[in-house]
Design a protein that fits this description.
The structure is a single chain. With 255 residues, this protein is of the alpha/beta class. It contains four helices and 15 strands. It binds flavin-adenine dinucleotide. Flavin-adenine dinucleotide (FAD) binds next to β4, β5 and α1.
Amino acid sequence: MKNQFKLKILSNKKITDKLYYLILEPGKLAAQVKPGQFIEVRISDGLEPFFRRPFSVFRCQKSVELFYEVRGKGTEILSAKNKGEVLDVIGPLGTSFSLPSKKVKQVVMIGGGIGVAPFMALSDTLNNKGYELVLLYGGRNKDYTFNMSEFKKNGCKVFVSTDDGSVGVKGKVSVLFNKIKADAERTMIYTCGPRAMMASVQDFAKKHGLKGECSCEEVMACGVGVCLGCVVKTVNGYKTCCKDGPVFRLDEVVF
Ligand SMILES: Cc1cc2nc3c(=O)[nH]c(=O)nc-3n(C[C@H](O)[C@H](O)[C@H](O)COP(=O)(O)OP(=O)(O)OC[C@H]3O[C@@H](n4cnc5c(N)ncnc54)[C@H](O)[C@@H]3O)c2cc1C
């Protein structure tokens, strides 16, 4: 397969109790990835887990980087992999974020939990291009939050909320929507995270006439539009998250 690569692990570090940061050698993959795209990782050589697991590309400059949460068996196995081991990955897959139009001044990225992952690559691309970059990040508690210095280095103004108030402001990420200047002509919103969160972003955007895109992270199997396991309801009918998405227009998805 022409987009299948075997990439050596350069590091796989635990960041918090729940979050890991995996760096792979770039191979021929890194240069092909656009912000918002994902890769399918073969977790083990055995039958379990049978399907590859999808991950957004967190960064793809000198290496291919993933930021992931340990959720079940697959990510648990992944978290135990060591430097020097080789991962079999397919990618880049899916649609990417479209870049803001020339009129846009304010770019707002709204990430819930691990949904923040595709925004590092997006901020790498938009840094130093004259946009005001804002990142609103909502996590469950301190185990789901991390040092945002790399986003800040990319010129992002970062605001954090947690459900229990252990980091940043207490509450869902919607408590941070007041940081957004509701300037319809000059604002572009990007969001990724749990459905309920993206629904609240969609409502906010609709109320203020803001344009945006969302990246859906449905449970996925084949990753190439064949099994139809990851369909998303949209105003234009059902679409596959893996091939028609994961990035859709914010007003298109029915949450
Ligand atoms: C396009 C895309 C990009 C993604 N990017 C990232 C990323 O950058 N970092 C990251 O940590 N995760 C990401 N995910 C989610 C990641 O793929 C799942 O967490 C992973 O597949 C879980 O595998 P597992 O074997 O550990 O868990 P499983 O044993 O398969 O599942 C454990 C639990 O997690 C739930 N679950 C599995 N997949 C998802 C999902 N997609 N959304 C919500 N709940 C799920 C299951 O229903 C189950 O309750 C992404 C998913 C998609 C579709």
